[in-house]
User: Fold this.
Amino acid sequence: MSSTTAQPRVAVVPGDGASPGAMEAALTVLQAAGAQVQWDLLPTGADLTPLSPQERVAAVHPRLDEADTVLLGSTGGITPGVLHLRYGRGTWCNLRPVQWRPGFASPYAHPERIDYLIVRESHEDLYIGFEGELGLLRESGLAERIRGVRVPPGAEGRFAVKILTRAFTERIARRACEETMRRKETGHPGRLTIGAKTNMLAVSDGFFAKVCAEIAADYPIEVETVIVDDLAHRLALHPESFDVLVLPNQYGDILADGGAGQIGGMTLTPSGCFGDDFAYFEAPQGAPVPADQFDRINPTALILAGAWMLRHLGQTEVGDRIDAAVSRVYAAGAWLPQDQGGHATTEAFAAAVVQALGG
Assistant:
């Protein structure tokens, strides 16, 4: 908590496209519920558009660094800060809960038991950004090690490097085990699924799976290791059979978005990003909704992310009331957002959640 105020400082990043509409609705709910925070509202993507990239960074990054936590709207290249929050603020663990609630427009006939958590390592794997032209591989001598492919001199192409380290894998495995234990205490199965492409990438993904299994052996939980493509298949057929999944960066990113689709879409699933001493909360970073959808965008993910943020800040009762109010609105069905089969505007949905705060 900031040393200059009795209340935590929350940097609010409205985001790009129609995301500021969702953020406006989320703040309406959080304030009505009685959140005790100092809000720092940053510029919208529209406000930042006339600025140079350097000016945008100068307008955003220092305020992210001054905050105790951040509520982040969806961004798509205009608003900076996502990479700074991940790497600059050291948030190496991304938690993505996938939980159906009555009223969510799931494509499944019986989604009632879909309730699992994806624990995604978010600092390494292919997302380290070590890419280049094939000529660099030829110069290093590594081109000759490409399985089944001969790279002739002068061939045009690109490469990307995947890196998985023991230290980063151990810490994400421990976090996944701790999350599994927490869920077990609340009645969940206490089962951890390790997902990786261990058959084709035995050296790298095999290492990730092996290290995760070693760490998990110290916890009183069930553990299974599943090849990631089989995991995708099983998630599609029987999502209700999973509890906690731990995955390298890229697979976790992909399967978390797939999980959102199981319950009704990415507008329903909050995301939390955690480091050793800092966390931020967001709507998942899919493509921003066009700005002309400002009052039709579904703010559910941001409202739930805000509730999660308040629980993280120790304001558990307020966060729980917001979460329960969202569930009541969806269960009632009278004020569903338009992407969930209803007719409510963004503002009207937020007003319904505020009304439901009273129980």
Observations:
- The chain has twelve helices and twelve strands.
